[in-house]
Specification:
Number of helices: 15
Strand order of the largest sheet: 3-2-1-4-5
Largest sheet: 5 strands, mixed
Strand content: 15-25%
Number of strands: 14
Distance between the termini: 82 Å
Order of helices and strands: HHHHHHHEEEHEHEHHEEHEEEEEEEHHH
Shape: extended
Length: about 425
């Protein structure tokens, strides 16, 4: 197959009177190829009749009944009507004939036409969750992404969950990274924001909005395009940062995400200006001095070293709780956190380390208790012999005899001679 440049060249040489052989020698092409291109496209062959032609009327009627009927369902029905080709052939011919009607609502999210919305500077901040089911540190992560509708500037905070406390923590982190807040927040109908089945925001989130002095705008149901700015930001963060981020812990991931947002995302060009330049025109509202005092509450299992993992750090508890489930309580804006046992008793209180710092906080009392527990468990006895011969003992044999006696007395004993007599009579 020749390129467009080669095709133009051989036609130009032919107009000068060059022979096919001379053109072939000059271009390094085969003479048959040169002759074919000089001759031009021949008459095209009529396409073969589709194997679905006998079923055309039935398929059209089925698409009138349901334009979204699955191809596998149609294939089963076609086989029942005598179609003998494969499913791949069936789908290929279905597409070639164009029998399935085009659904504009599905292609455009419910609208046949669309238009770009115009946003005023500082008017709206959209936010949504990005769920990371697999991470290098072995635990799922949830990224709250916030994007300004006018400039498209985005910031994100990595959380360990999507509870109300994590939402407020991530939201405050996004606002601090943006340097302020827009006059309204745009969100979808997540359960931590909107009462299920209604358009009303929850009492808790209303308190958050009043704390920051903003309005809350909820997207209509099944209309993700209404917050298309943050939807695009989520896809951009996933593709441009997460898939190639060189991180091994939650703390590293957050630090690298913050670096990427300034060094890469803000330098994108739009209409001859960078995203950072547009963001400077936002005129965001000032933030309160402290975050809304929402409480984080997560359950953790105490490890063998009497430590509890929380936000990329580890906190000590009494050694008697090893293997048990405890609850970590941390209120935003406070410098300490508490660990509560399953019975509701506070078992530890620690200074809250920065998220992802990788610190280990163990109190002196817990350290002494753990050391004493290790010393008490120390022994010089020989380890268990796992390969020794240990047949059933007297107690096990007695129990076996008792079970066998119960089975004999309580069951039905069948004599095989009865079956032999029945078989002889049947012959």
């Amino acid at each position: 197959m020749l390129t467009e440049e080669d095709d133009v060249e051989i036609h130009a040489l032919a107009r000068r009177g060059w022979s096919v052989s001379a053109i072939a020698r000059h271009t390094g092409r085969d003479r048959k190829t040169v002759r074919k291109y000089l001759k031009g496209a021949g008459p095209s062959r009529e396409p073969a009749v589709s194997c679905l032609e006998p079923l055309r009327e039935y398929l059209v009627a089925r698409f009138v009944d349901d334009a979204h009927v699955d191809g596998t369902v149609l294939y089963r029905e076609a086989v029942a009507l005598g179609f003998e080709r494969s499913y791949v052939t069936f789908v290929r011919e279905l597409r070639r004939l164009g029998l399935r009607p085009r659904c504009e609502a599905c292609r455009s999210g419910g609208h046949g036409v669309t238009v770009e919305l115009v946003h005023e500077p500082g008017e709206e901040l959209q936010f949504d969750w990005l769920e990371l089911s697999e991470t290098p540190w072995g635990q799922p992560a949830y990224v709250l992404v916030g994007a300004l509708s006018f400039s498209g500037q985005c910031r994100a905070v990595i959380c360990e969950g999507m509870t109300f406390g994590h939402l407020v923590e991530g939201l405050d982190g996004v606002l601090r990274r943006l340097g302020g807040t827009a006059r309204a927040w745009r969100t979808d109908r997540m359960a931590t924001v909107v009462l299920p089945g209604t358009d009303r925001i929850t009492v808790q989130f209303a308190q958050v909005a009043k704390h920051y002095g903003v309005q809350v705008w909820v997207c209509p149901p099944r209309r993700p395009q209404r917050k298309g700015v943050v939807e695009a930001a989520v896809k951009y963060i996933t593709r441009s940062w997460w898939t190639s981020a060189p991180v091994a812990s939650l703390g590293q991931a957050q630090a690298d995400l913050d670096r990427w947002a300034v060094a890469v995302s803000d330098r994108r060009k739009r209409h001859g200006q960078t995203i950072a330049g547009f963001a400077a025109q936002e005129g965001l509202l000032a933030l309160p001095a402290a975050a809304f005092p929402a409480q984080l509450q997560v359950e953790r299992v105490v490890g063998r070293s009497a430590l509890v993992a929380f936000e990329g750090n580890r906190y000590s508890v009494p050694p008697g709780l090893v293997g048990q489930t405890v609850t970590v309580l941390a209120r935003l804006g406070e410098l300490h956190l508490e660990v509560v046992s399953a019975a509701g008793r506070r078992v530890a209180r620690h200074r809250r380390a920065p998220t992802g710092a990788g610190q280990l906080l163990r109190s002196d009392q817990h350290a002494r208790s753990l050391e004493q527990a290790v010393l008490d468990a120390f022994t010089t006895d020989k380890p268990c012999r796992r390969k020794a011969n240990r047949p059933p003992g007297p107690a096990a044999l007695t129990a076996t005899t008792r079970l066998q006696d119960q089975g004999t007395n309580g069951g039905v004993v069948v004599d095989l001679e009865d079956y032999a007599q029945i078989a002889s009579v049947a012959r």
